[in-house]
Design brief:
This protein is an alpha/beta fold. The protein is built from eight helices and five strands, in the order H-E-H-E-H-H-E-H-E-H-E-H-H. The chain has a five-stranded parallel β-sheet, with helices on both faces. Helix 6 links the parallel strand 4 and strand 5. The longest helix has 11 residues.
């Protein structure tokens, strides 16, 4: 199955969660903007996959990325970002969501594990109470936050004389 075949419509997320649970699978969920895919994203998603039998990834929609990251973002459309993430071996399913947090997505999917990157602690995860409300747990996964899209963009701009003028 190619990456596009792993992208599910938002309206089908609850049914997917029900089917996965009925099949006795431990569902892990991770989310992010994934605006310029880098090794930090890969390590985060691989570590999230290790937390469950199935990894569902929520990709922030374009309006949410603009609100979170500011002017000039996202660099790629939500559908392009979702397709790139879906093509990764660690990822089983991808869903695009437009809310500022993943709370509604989590309530629909009800994963056993909600995975966040190392720029969070379990106490700072915005959705932690929602996850706990249905018996899930929050896990902090991936390597130390030494990689970022913002840092990559700054590095590219620093190397490009045209970008400095």
């Amino acid at each position: 199955m190619n990456g596009r075949g792993r992208i599910i419509p938002r309206g089908e997320l609850g049914q997917l969660g029900e089917r996965l649970h009925r099949d006795g699978l431990r569902v892990a969920f991770a989310n992010g903007c994934f605006d310029l895919l880098h090794v930090g994203h890969l390590r985060y998603l691989e570590a999230a996959r290790a937390e469950g039998d199935v990894l569902v990834v929520g990709v922030n929609g374009d309006a949410a990325v603009r609100a979170l990251k500011g002017p000039g973002r996202p660099l790629l459309s939500g559908s392009a970002r979702a397709e790139l993430v879906a093509a990764l071996q660690a990822v089983d399913y991808v869903v695009i969501f437009d809310e500022p947090t993943a709370e509604a997505v989590l309530l629909e999917l009800r994963p056993e594990v909600h995975c966040k990157g190392t720029d969070y602690t379990e106490e700072t995860v915005p959705e932690r109470e929602v996850v706990r409300s249905f018996g899930g747990v929050v896990r902090i996964v991936g390597d130390a936050k030494h990689h970022s899209t913002r840092g990559l963009l700054q590095g590219i701009a620093a190397r490009d004389p045209a970008a400095r003028s």
